[in-house]
Amino acid sequence: MSSMLGRMILAGCPYTVYHVKMLEAVPLIPLFEGLSDEQNATLMNAFEHYSSNLGAVVFEQGDPANYLYLIVKGDVSIMYKPYDGEKITLTRLKDGDVFGWSAVVGTNKYSSGAVCNSDLEAIRLRRDHLLKLMETTPDASKVIIDRLALNVSPRWKDAYKQIEPLITPKRKTA
Question: Above 90 in pLDDT, residue 66?
Answer without folding.
Answer: yes
